Amino acid sequence: MKMLRGLLLVSGAVILSAAAAQAADLPLKAKAVEYVKVCSLYGSGFYYIPGTDTCIKLGGYLRAETALWTNSNYGGAYSGVAGADNRLSNRMQTRSREDLNIDTRTATEYGVVRTYFDAVFTWTSGSYSGVGNGGTQYSTGAANSSGLTSVNALSNDGISGGSLGVYYAFIQFAGFTFGKAVSTFDAPWTNYPANNFDGLVGGSGSVNGVNQITYTADFGQGITAAISAEDQSQFFTTNIWNTAGISASGVLGGSYGTNSIGGQVAPDIIGMVRIDQAWGLFQASFAAHDNHAGYYGATEVTGHPEDKWGWAAQLALSIKNIPTGPGDVINLQAVYTDGASRYNFQSLANTSYAMYGGGSGNTYQSIGFAGVADAVFAPGTGLSTVKTWGMRGGATHNWNANWNTAVYGAYAQVRYGATGSTQICAGIAATGMLSAGSTCNPDFNIAQVGVITRWTPVKGLTFSTDVTYSHLDQKYSGTVTAPTIASVAKPAAFYQLKDQDTVSMLVRAQRNW
Q1: Are strands 493-497 and 365-371 parallel, antiparallel or unpaired?
Q2: By the 8 A CB rule, do 292 and 321 touch?
Q3: Domain ranges in the chain?
Q4: Helix (H, G, I), strand (E, B), or coil: what is residue 80?
Q5: Contact predicate 189/183, CB 8 Å
Q6: Pair 311, 339: CB distance under 8 Å
Q7: What pLDDT digit, counting tens, does each position of 406-454 carry?
Q8: By the 8 A CB rule, do 240 and 381 touch?
């Protein structure tokens, strides 16, 4: 018994010694967990990134929508197979999108340093290309090794691939903005004075962001001014037509020659002044745009027209606290351009129109066609700039906290001037497409009007229906002998030159977070 007791005591001593040795090797007591803290410096939703003095906010939305009577969720049935209005035209198209944005801010001795990033992941249902070949609008660019791709140009995983887009990616520091952001020229509502419809004319709109370097001065009392150098190639150039390239099929698609844009040699220079008060907002914007064409012919030795600067000016007005109800607002803007048409026909608006409808007499159908350019030239001539003016606006009324309705409209005119019109009409005459007694005039007007109703049953979730009517007022008259347009299944025939109308609808569900 004594021996057993001794063995137990010795064993216990050995175990305690080993435990003490292991305890000596253990790390010191861990620090308390550093929990994420609310950052109240920049409004709700910001938190400190642990271990830093930088605040971050995550946001975004998920959107599902269906467009009716158009081949594009962006606009109306203005051209291509949508404008053809036949069995190749989509009567509906669907799109789903997830948006993610990241906003970071850090207080420094020079002021707040801000970065902002906004990306979208999108899938859009198939739209037709050619006669009966379906294709997904967005593909992943994967290698086309499947036998399926030889028919409809789908990438291998195009059905579930979708697309990735970057809207904004910029840094703001000491009054400067560097990167991809909304243009300084734009009104605060960009393309949307009251609407969801993307294709309104009558003002600028770079809702998807444009690369820029901008300095903004804040004078207090809601008064700011900015000057900006912005990438013109992405958003601010429409067409520079060389009328030597005019063809009958091109004209019927809204193109008056070869689009002969040269390389970008100068950014657009933009200035802006804004007054933002409790009653609303007033803004004046100005832009200078360099038109830099390619060559008269296929090679350098054919020569080229000299550069010609265009310009645009815009006024915008927002009126709040109107008597119709709390939160109601009216947004208005007007713009004039000379050689800078994209500031009227904004980045998501059409710059070519080819719309078919019913004809009369011995014609097969009717057609209305038109095109937008910054400038026009013929071999051996200088640039003739295109002048436009436009306006748009919308009024939103809140019926209650859950329902609102808005009406909106837009109008734009395009004028080619004596020189540009003569050059275009000479090219059209050479094709022999206009019948005897017909008149040639590339000028046109377009008018749009719409109504949208939104229902927000709970915070951040909105259902909306937006209906838009568009009228193309083209200035040609008579009839035209058209060749076969295989891409839209239109036969060679006589067509009446006539104004055209179209209606589209956009039904949307969106959850903001």
Answers
A1: parallel
A2: no
A3: 35-143+154-512
A4: helix
A5: no
A6: yes
A7: 999 999 999 999 999 999 999 999 999 999 999 999 999 999 999 999 9
A8: no
Q: Which residues contact 142 (CB under 8 A, 6 or more apart)?
A: 155, 156, 157, 158, 161
C-beta separation of 438 from 475 below 8 A = no
Q: At 168, is the secondary structure helix, strand, or coil?
A: strand
The whole-angstrom separation of Cα 344 and Cα 336 is 7
**Structural class in CATH, domain 35-143+154-512:** mainly beta
Whole-angstrom distance, CA of residue 205 vs CA of residue 349: 9
| pTM, entire model | 0.87
Q: Per-residue pLDDT tens for 291-332? A: 999 999 999 999 999 999 999 999 999 999 899 999 999 999
The pair of three-digit structure tokens given for residue 400, joined into one six-digit string: 């209650």
Q: CA 140, CA 158: separation in Å to the nearest integer?
A: 6
In order of 131, 308, 380, the CA distances from 418 in angstroms are 39, 17, 17
Q: Quote the CA–CA distance of 89 and 127 in Å, as a whole number.
A: 8
Residue among 261, 260, 316 at smallest CA distance from 289: 261
H/E stretch holding 388 reads strand 387-398
Burial pattern 482-498, b for ≥16 Cβ within 10 A else e, equals beebebbbbeebebbbb
Comparing CA positions, the residue from 187, 182, 185 lying closest to residue 331 is 187
In three-state secondary structure terms, 157 is coil
**How is residue 33 written in tokens?**
């967990």
285 — alpha (psi -120 to 50), left (phi > 0) or beta? beta
